[in-house]
Amino acid sequence: MTHGEVTAGTTHVVPHHFDSPEQAFEASKLGIWLFLVTEILLFGGLFVVYIIFRALYPEMFHEASHHLNKVLGGINTVVLICSSLTMALAVDRTRQNDSPKANQYMLMTLFFAACFMIIKYVEYSHKFHEGLLPGANFTFEAIQHPKTPLFFSLYFMMTGLHGIHVLAGMGLITWVLWRSNKGQFSSAYYTPVELVGIYWHLVDLIWIYLFPLLYLIG
Amino acid sequence: MSSHATTYVSFLEAEKGFKSWLTTLDHKRIGLMYMATSMIFFMIGGIFATLVRLELMFPGQTIMSAGTYNKFFTYHGAIMIFMFIIPIIPAALGNFFLPIMIGAKDVAFPRLNLASYYIFIAGASFAVLALMLKGADTGWTFYTPYSIRSGTSVVLVALGVFIMGFSGILTGLNFMTTVHKLRAPGMTFHRMPLFVWAIYATAIIQVLATPVIGITTLLLIMERVLGIGFFDPALGGDPVLFQHFFWFYSHPAVYIMILPAMGIISEVIPVFSRKHIFGYHAIAYSSLAIAFISFVVWGHHMFVSSQSDLANMLFSFLTMFVAVPTAIKVFNWTATMYKGSISLKTPMLYALSFLFMFTIGGLTGLFLAALSVDVHLHDTYFVVAHFHYVMMGGTVMGLLAGLHYWWPKMFGKMYPEIAGKISWALIFIGFNLTFLTQFFVGYLGMPRRYYDYPVQYTSWNIASTIGSWFLFAGFLLMLIYFVKSLFFGKRVAEAANPWGGKTLEWQIPSPPPMHNFAETPHVTGRPYEYGVAKL
Question: The whole model's pTM is what?
Fold first, then answer.
């Protein structure tokens, strides 16, 4: 296939420097996987901080963990897993040329993501209210261990950075939903849906590690 | 083909106007924009270096106060590291030549490539803004707890570094994908030019290490804004943890700086020796080996920061291990020149300077990797000299070799050879005068970073400062002749291959056309086949 050719069924044009749509798709897939590696390394830094301080102050981590809301955290885990499912279904439907159904699945994914953020907001405001704040701003008095603020610094850094990724994912899903709604995707070209889907699963996966490490160690 | 009537439109002329540059998706133009930007930062960083050297010429106050000195050496370090030496070869020359050398029309993600450039500009703007506000006086390493307490604009500088990191990550990701997915038919991995191997190894480090400086600077920012306390002993944190985080990135980062320069040397030496490269596979895989070992040596920056003896011994051993793939390269380059027909043009002079000075830099690295010796030398000028022999004697020499080598290819204009050689001589003499003296004064015990020093070190410092003037003069001359050659330089013939290069970039017109290749090339041989077969 020569460059600049329009792929059947969509208005998408294969960029001139690729020989074929397959090559373009494969390159994009490799790109997103490499990007996910960098995301894991970004969070990896926080996991290292977690390992070090938990190894230094294990009993403090256990005690502080009791002050997180296990029920809300658990609900959020279920919510995110559901959102991953609907996102995977959206990719599948796009690939099967069923854009209306794919759009519905993407809307559901957005709904679950919004639920996650609302629950997170409830949790955060409760923590703010109690004075369970990071580091220097910590004012909660019911825990005696002097290093306890470190746990809440970690809690807010890890879930905060994750929350920013959820918001970014919501933005990306909205963008592909908007494009999908304009009929830009089909079995011949669905790269953005696929890539956003892969990214969204990572956001889900990171939470699946955060939840037990922060909430369930008490 | 005549030189005056061009039969094609070059990428420089394909579109006109300032806007066509700012919105370009052409890897060659983006490369040149990176080059211009980083070279401006090189000049600024160089001016700060000259001022710092001037202050250190005599003990006590010479031209500036201690506070200003602390800021100036921070600016010199931060600008040179984050805005010049990390992006200059991969993002500028790599962007320009990597796609051409593998027979591709562009990088895999051209829009991401342009975005990387603007992300870089955004990050650099934050850092420059910080310098204009309250500055920074932490050194380029931002060690805690001082960087938490310093009254300067550390947050803005850290934010700048954080953002520029994304630019590097995206560039690396783009290059890795390009090498994997866009090689021309017949361009197998083992037929790729060694510059491409080097940029590929660099890209691996950029992708795997840079996110760690991202989270480190983010935590430092949070440390100052929210007081999270991970690195603050007053809040139960650990300042040495910051050093581990910082060097987990910043040690691999020195290989982001040196590997691409090694790639340039691997191009220049066979071309100017008219010889097939000796040990192609060894050089190619030693780039990967260096990239991987670079991740397990960071602890050698903390031999005197309360690290355990066991960790010290392991890091000492692993650090010495880096010398193996590095020496493999040096021996293979030397063997390439053996019985070659060596042409001492400016690029080759810089390549030979690289061999000479990088070897000194590398070998003194082994002194510092030895635990007992490091205790004596760690906080002295010996480390400053070692670092500059590797970074300036290595990376900058490689960069200058590449700039002169590819100048006619990039712009279709020749630089003046005699001015090039004079400039080389000034830089070579100036560099060695500036930094060889620092090995001695460091060995005698002069501590680094300090504003003042005892009188017995004065003569060494005077010599070092005079050396910096030679360097300044050499670079000034280079700036003048490069800019002049752009406007008044001799137009090289369109099909010219002034050095007789065998790699793909020399098989297309100079400057290259917009999409590099009229037809996708089919590669049938290896890249440096001198005296073997005609390509």
Answer: 0.94
